[in-house]
């Protein structure tokens, strides 16, 4: 069985402190994937980052901790609250997946280079088959250790490339949705 992990789709990532972001269509694609996934009846884990950093907009006592519209847990979705980059550290996620018989995870979210990448890598190391929906992820510009600016597009591409090379596969939202629809489409109407 396969589960969907929705990583940190929270209002705090709209805060200007993060800087310039790539992929302005990530949320729209992510919502399309989430809706299609829910129609399959397979497990969905909604992961929320509850920052312990005093200045973070993602702290539980800040408005930025709230989910972006459409990404709050729905029905039987699991809510997984984390305080570090990996959705597996200090949470019941691995146990819930194992108890449900899940052997593969598909994930997307914010940000590509931090919580998405860390969770995907750890999922692979724990033995799960990993799929990342690349165009349903986004990240922000960074500053390299030598002070040079690094564009979000480059960071995003580098992380998706290494994830696809070593830890799983990266797919487009449209392709994933088509494959999900073929699983849920009755032969009489397909």
Task: Explain the overall architecture.
It is a single chain. The chain is an alpha/beta fold and 190 residues long. Helix content is 34%, strand content 22%. The protein has five helices and eight strands. The protein has helices spanning 26-40, 93-99, 112-125, 152-167, 173-184, and strands at residues 2-7, 44-49, 78-82, 104-110, 129-138, 142-143, 149-150, 169-171. It has a six-stranded parallel β-sheet, sandwiched between helices. Strands 6-7 form a two-stranded antiparallel sheet. Helix 1 (26-40) packs parallel to helix 5.
- What would you call the structural class? alpha/beta
Broad CATH class: Alpha Beta
Oligomer: single chain
Query: Which stretches are poorly predicted, pLDDT < 50 over at least 5 residues?
Result: 185-190
Shape: globular
CATH fold call:
Rossmann fold
H and E string: EHEEHEHEEEHEH
Radius of gyration: 16 Å
- Biggest pleated-sheet summary: 6 strands, parallel
In what range is the share of β-strand residues? 15-25%
Query: How many alpha or pi helices?
Result: 5
Number of strand segments:
8
CATH homologous superfamily title = Isochorismatase-like
Number of domains: 1
Q: Strand order within the widest sheet?
A: 3-2-1-4-5-8
Please state the average pLDDT score: 95
N/C terminus separation: 23 Å
Brief descriptors of the model:
34% helix, Rossmann fold, globular, two-stranded antiparallel ribbon, alpha/beta, 190 residues
Short overview:
With 190 residues, the protein is α/β, with parallel strands linked by helices. The chain has five helices and eight strands, in the order βαββαβαβββαβα. The strands form two sheets. Strands 3-2-1-4-5-8 form a six-stranded parallel β-sheet, with helices on both faces. Strands 6-7 form a two-stranded antiparallel sheet.
